[in-house]
Amino acid sequence: MKTISVTTHIQSPPDVVWQILTGFRAYPDWNPFITRASGDIKVGQRLTLRIVPPGTGGMTFRPRVTALEPEHMLEWSGTLGIQGLFDGRHTFILEPTEGGTTLTQTETFTGLLVPLTNKMLLRTKKGFENMNAALHNRADSDPAKTARPTATE
Question: Is the pTM of this model over 0.70?
């Protein structure tokens, strides 16, 4: 088992960060790591994700949403090929802080092939760092991009 994790402080409230994180249609506009995402963000549903760790050609996979707490936590689990060879549990945790949100992106990998994937895991961690930084920039730079609809809209 191996775990990678990246934490970033964002100077926007959790609802704004959550809106960006779950706004899959906009991923191609800002997300350098998960460049495409689709599916219903509901426990038990499959997502389709295109990830591009730095220095790779990328890959598409179909994890299943395993946990969801709006504005706090999103988790999915997936496997490459046969379960037990290389499986991952990916979690986003949003914690409110004074003046913003702490975002932690974590993945725990299990399976027989995990010991052979050190280089891939380093690239994946860099992808997490890039994604967290891009989400931070999007949330904190232009309020119009993340404007929430009002009751009259």
Answer: yes
Tokens of 25: 């249609």
The answer to whether residues 63 and 76 touch, using CB atoms and an 8 Å cutoff, is yes
Helix (H, G, I), strand (E, B) or coil at 75: strand
Is 124 within 8 Å of 2 (Cβ atoms)?
no
- The candidate with the shortest Cα–Cα distance to 14, out of 98, 106, 77, is 98
Closest CA to 13 of 125, 117, 143: 143
User: Quick one: 3 exposed, middle or buried, by C-beta within 10 A (0-12, 13-18, 19+)?
Assistant: exposed
Domains and CATH numbers, the chain: 2-145 (3.30.530.20)
Q: What angle do CA 146, 126, 66 make, to 5 degrees?
A: 65
The per-residue pLDDT for range 88-140, each reduced to its tens digit, is 999 999 999 998 999 999 999 999 989 888 898 999 999 999 999 999 999 99
User: What own/partner pairs with CB < 8 Å and gap ≥ 24 does 138-146 have?
Assistant: 138/20, 138/30, 139/10, 139/11, 139/12, 139/16, 139/17, 139/20, 139/101, 140/10, 140/11, 140/12, 146/12, 146/16, 146/19, 146/20
